[in-house]
Amino acid sequence: MEIHKRSPCPVACALDIIGDKWTILVIRDLALGRQYFKEFLASPEGIATNILTNRLQRLKDAGIISALPDPGPIGRFQYRLTQKGQAMQAMIEAMAEWGLRYIEGTSKRLDPI
Amino acid sequence: MEIHKRSPCPVACALDIIGDKWTILVIRDLALGRQYFKEFLASPEGIATNILTNRLQRLKDAGIISALPDPGPIGRFQYRLTQKGQAMQAMIEAMAEWGLRYIEGTSKRLDPI
DNA sequence: CTGTATCCAGCCGGATACTG
DNA sequence: CAGTATCCGGCTGGATACAG
User: Fold this and answer.
1) What are the sequence ranges of the domains in chain B?
2) CATH code assigned to B10-102
3) Does A57 touch chain B (CB under 8 A)?
4) Which residues of chain B does A41 touch, with a Cβ-Cβ cutoff of 8 Å?
5) pLDDT by 10s per residue, chain A, length 113
6) Could you tell me the CA-to-CA distances from B67 to A37, B7, B12, B56, B61 in Å, in that order?
């Protein structure tokens, strides 16, 4: 899963990581407090399990999320944004503002966990 | 080229338009003052001609760019950001800042036209 | 249950040929 | 030159089966 750098442009390099229809949504969910595989699956966009696995792996490789074993009885991971991941919130917020302003039928509230 | 809306989330809806590795780069180029097919092709990432045609069409359909016949002798179009497109600059700037801060080997300056 | 892997249709996109 | 179309290998992602 090695990333090929197309140019030194920070925008292009960011797109090499997050340039698809799903990655940012996972980060959005994490920013909203979701932490578990099941919670990401429950988001209204309906990400497929194999895609979610793939994106979690890529984000971990990129240092944007961490996965720590959940203390609870179920063998699962607790996913969290690293500082590098948290720093993406400004960008996501800018996307949200643009969408709200320019795309009809959008609304800010997402179903609670 | 109809867009299927996955959810009312403004982030998800924005991604339905710009969620790939090339679209944002075209908008970046437009924001930097590039206006012609040839200029987009000359960007260091090396977009293919068929992909560029496809993205220009999509962006036009989405109301993010306009294409007006160039007054010069060559039969070509002059592409420009609409207001809706210009409003994406805050988001792109946030991406650039994130990339500069968190991805090694990135630098802000792009070759001039 | 948590997550991974596999199947497979369809889209993406690089190379290239083509039209005007 | 400006832009489009076509070929075709490889990736994406939905459905589903699978493993712990």
Assistant:
1) 10-102
2) 1.10.10.10
3) no
4) none
5) 456 789 999 999 999 999 999 999 999 999 999 999 999 999 999 999 999 999 999 999 999 999 999 888 888 999 999 999 999 999 999 999 999 999 999 998 655 44
6) 44, 30, 26, 9, 11
Tokens standing for residue B17: 């338009």
- The 10 Å CB-count burial string (b at 16+, else e) for A93-113 is bbbbbbbbebbeebeeebeee
CA distance to A52, A76, A95, per residue, from A71 (Å): 22, 9, 34
Tokens 């930097």 sit at which residue? Answer: B32
Whether CB of A38 is under 7 Å from strand C: the answer is: yes
N-to-C CA span, chain B = 31
Pick from A10, A44, A97: which is nearest to B96 by CB? A10
